[in-house]
């Protein structure tokens, strides 16, 4: 569990700098240059992510079960994961209504992913991992929307084609990941 906790602190701590210490971040960019800051940010993020993966893998070897599994929650999680994949696609497909309306669909995707996995899982490691990402995503979304309002950011123009493409890409990615990817990467077949 210590590797998982250390990884979460590094990864989510670094990803929280704009939420809690934007002035410090600006000072570091001035100190290291934009490229230097991005390089340092990437390096620390990768180390943190690696520790999360390693720590979660170790924690799964001797799970601390907090409650019995609740029947049907894996189906609820699967439905939420379809939404998470659509939101993730919305972050990248240009001119879609989801991004225009929600502003930051990737952060909402992380929030949905974390909540879905909290519903379907029942160990201490699951609560630490997915709960931490859920709290981070909530705080990040609030911060991003507040920053958008302060900067006067207006929704971009959206098209029906952009929205349809978002829905198709998100659904296809969800199906591919649920049928093949999740089992391949994590050894668990969600569907």
Describe the protein:
By secondary structure, the protein is an all-alpha fold. It has two domains: 62 residues; 126 residues, no CATH class. The protein has eight helices and no strands. The radius of gyration is 18 Å and the shape is globular. The two termini are 28 Å apart. The mean pLDDT is 94.
Protein topology:
Elements: H1 2-15, H2 17-20, H3 22-61, H4 73-92, H5 97-102, H6 105-120, H7 124-151, H8 160-186
Helix pairs in contact: 1-3, 1-7, 4-6, 4-8, 6-7
Overview features:
about 190 residues; mainly alpha; 2 domains; about 80% helix; about 0% strand; globular
Q: How many extended strands?
A: 0
Order of helices and strands: HHHHHHHH
Q: In angstroms, what is the radius of gyration?
A: 18 Å
Total domain modules: 2
Distance between the ends: 28 Å
Indicate the proportion of strand residues. Answer: under 5%
Helix content: over 70%
What's the pLDDT, averaged over the residues?
Answer: 94
* Structural class by SSE content: mainly alpha
Q: Number of helical segments?
A: 8
Gross geometry: globular
Could you give a short account of the major beta sheet?
A: none
Q: Could you provide a short overview of the structure?
A:
The chain contains 8 helices and no strands. With 191 residues, the chain is mainly α.
């Amino acid at each position: 569990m210590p590797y998982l906790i250390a990884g979460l602190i590094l990864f989510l701590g670094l990803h929280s700098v704009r939420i809690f210490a934007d002035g410090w971040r600006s000072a570091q960019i001035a100190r290291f240059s934009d490229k230097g800051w991005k390089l340092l940010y990437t390096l620390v993020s990768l180390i943190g992510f690696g520790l999360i993966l390693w720590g979660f893998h170790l924690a799964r070897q001797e799970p601390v079960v907090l409650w019995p599994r609740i029947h049907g929650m894996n189906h609820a999680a699967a439905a939420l994961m379809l939404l998470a994949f659509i939101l993730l696609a919305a972050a990248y497909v240009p001119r879609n209504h989801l991004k225009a309306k929600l502003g930051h669909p990737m952060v909402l995707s992380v929030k949905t992913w974390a909540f879905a996995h909290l519903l379907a899982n029942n160990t201490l490691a699951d609560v630490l991992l997915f709960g931490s990402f859920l709290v981070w995503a909530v705080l990040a979304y609030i911060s991003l929307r507040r920053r958008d309002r302060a900067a006067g950011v207006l929704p971009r123009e959206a098209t029906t084609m952009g929205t349809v493409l978002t829905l198709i890409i998100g659904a296809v990615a969800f199906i591919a990941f649920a049928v093949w990817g999740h089992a391949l990467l994590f050894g668990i077949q969600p569907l």
